[in-house]
Amino acid sequence: MQHNASLTTPYSIRMMIRNEDYTGKTSGFVPGMIQANLIVLPQQYALEFLQFCQANRQSCPVLASSKVAGATDLPEHVAFDLDLRSDLSGYRVFKHGQLFNEVANVKDIWRDDYISFALASSLSFEESIRNAGIEVRNITELKNAPMYLTNIPCEAVGKFASNLVVSMRPMKPADAIRAIQICCRYPDMHGVPIHFGNPADIGIKNINRPTFGDPVTIKEGEVPVFWASSATAEVAMMNARIDSTITQRPGHMLITDIKNSDVSLF
Question: 123-232 domain in CATH 3.30.2040.10?
Fold first, then answer.
């Protein structure tokens, strides 16, 4: 199904997804609105997971979490009439840290002890970068952003530990500097890049073989620019080997009712 993002609202898209009239990726829907990553895990691990995110805020910025165990929504300011079991266009189910299944909804496996977390994604700063006239290569090439597990350790909390995962966008040096200036406005949406230049400096051996996502073209005269990624939280969740957890499929985000401008500094 083709979509006209400018003529829709977050709620109408969530209803379309809930009815399974749309099952594709959500990049480009409702410009100006935050799209979030989803992590769902049993209540007994929720506090440690939250503390891991707080200790590694740049990579794992939490927008909101469930008010009570088993809740299928988030606070109403995040998304009106939300059903987390069906309002994302694709889910991944993990068992003991291993990918078990990919499904259109998780109604049949939802548990009364689940706590859900919405984490900010890179789509917000990508939109601001594009609005400044800077190309975002993964969008141009209709791919998921390439992501890499680095040699930079995160602060571990209890069962949750991981090295930092970064997402990469190739840019000309002048555009990279402008992108850094733009991303200063979004400290709660991954903020400024953590590195640009030689990938080996952060433990990336082959830039053309991302750990997650898709490789993109790097043109002559461009440098790879790396941002902290919320995929860090997913790796930490996998490393914890919890019996049952849920995330969104890559690129199948939770479309919220929160404006990007509501979280920028100016």
Answer: yes
